[in-house]
Amino acid sequence: MTIDAARIDAQGTDAAGTPQPLPLTRTCPFTPPAELTRLREQEPVSPLAHPDGTVGWLVTEHALAKQVLTDSRFSARSELQHSPVLDQEPQAAMPGGFIFMDPPDHTRYRKLLTGQFTVRRMRQLEARVQEITDQQLAMMREKGPGADLVADFALPIPSLMICELLGVPYEDHDFFQKNSSAIFELAQNPEEVGQAFGALHVYLGELLQRKRAEPTGDLLSSLAAESDLSDVELIGVALLLLVAGHETTANMLSLGTFALLRHPDQFRLLREKPELVDGAVEELLRYLSIMHVGLIRAALEDVEVGGRLIRAGETVTVSMAAANRDPKKFGASEDLDITRNAGGHLAFGHGIHQCLGQQLARIEMRIGFTGLLREFPDLRLAIPASEVPLRSDMGIYGVHRLPVTW
């Protein structure tokens, strides 16, 4: 059954069963939608209704998720994929948008960047991450008691780091944040998204010309001087790294703190034993899985996954939130346990498209959580947990604000 044939009929069903929209509604801020759990247990490869009227597949089991993400018969090319959340035609990736490409295009871009994001290179940045973290903690204490942990702590740390790494002036971070938010909204206004992309392209294009004229020793200057990428490609690479660097770690720091505050035994354990922080970071990544929608692939040929035949051309959505709670991989998977071995989680994806900046994200979280719990051992929510505004409306899950006090 091809995508064109996989249209939902008047009764809302297709030959494989009853396609349902992607479950996104949570009853608990930290727990995936209950329907994802049911599907993982009963139908780990299930038909998925897309807003554009086509039917694809939803994968919720950990082992099957890894299978899809490592199988070259599943493509990351965005022009082949139907969105599980947006009613729009498939669109090709912007030049430089390598996470939406397959080899050899993906390989070409990734090779240029890999050396900038090695473990060794990231460890060289630890001192600067520590400096930025200490600076934000001092500013919180000076302003407090009381702060919005998102604006005062979680967002500035990764934003400052990615701006410095790329060579983007941090004083323009409000501009980036506003436009990246428009891009990540699930209920997108196409005109607003186009304006956001356009504004970012113009800004980064002007910045690139300054880097070409006066290199400043940063990643963008290096790529402009040493790579064979066109200006349009360089802008696309910079935009991808900049937006991802603003959105992902910031939400892990804020949502992770919220989770620790709602699990006081884990908060206390990490505060008393900061040496557990590496494992705590991995467990929070597993437990929270902030990729709200998941990863999307398109079958290039007929492939069997979990006993289901996925036809060439059909779209597959991999739910990391469900896969990372799979009890077959993680015992007592619904519990937050910072002492568990959470290795093998899929929070950063899997296979050749695994997150390029994951080592920097780990460093930022490790230093961020350690410093926060050390400096504010009495940290607590300043509003009821039920009033914390969740990012249920965004592609990257988290909290819009996290009012805290001490």
Structure keywords:
406 residues; alpha+beta; Cytochrome p450; 5-stranded mixed beta sheet; 3-stranded antiparallel beta sheet; 10 strands; 8% strand; globular; disordered N terminus
Briefly say what this structure is:
The protein is an alpha+beta fold and 406 residues long.
Could you describe the 3D structure shown?
By secondary structure, this protein is an alpha+beta fold. It has a single domain (34-405), classed as Cytochrome P450 (Cytochrome p450, Orthogonal Bundle), CATH 1.10.630. Helix content is 46%, strand content 8%. The chain has 15 helices and 10 strands. It has helices spanning 34-42, 62-70, 105-114, 119-123, 126-143, 149-154, 156-166, 173-184, 190-213, 219-226, 231-261, 264-272, 277-288, 320-323, 358-375, and strands spanning 45-49, 55-59, 74-75, 147-148, 295-299, 303-305, 308-310, 315-318, 380-381, 403-405. The strands form 3 sheets. It has a 5-stranded mixed sheet with strand order 1-2-8-5-3, covered by helices on one side. The protein has a 3-stranded antiparallel sheet with strand order 4-10-9. The chain has a two-stranded antiparallel ribbon with strand order 6-7. Helix 8 runs antiparallel to helix 9 (190-213) and helix 9 (190-213) crosses helix 11 (231-261). Mean pLDDT is 92; it is low at 1-16.
What is the CATH C level class, in words? Answer: Mainly Alpha
CATH topology: Cytochrome p450
What quaternary form is this?
single chain
Number of separate helices: 15
> What's the total number of strands?
10
Shape, principal axes of CA atoms: globular
The CATH H-level homologous superfamily: Cytochrome P450
Uncertain residue ranges:
1-16
Radius of gyration: 21 Å
Tell me the fraction of residues in β-strands, as a range.
5-15%
Mean pLDDT: 92
Summarize the helix and strand pattern as letters.
HEEHEHHHEHHHHHHHHEEEEHHEE
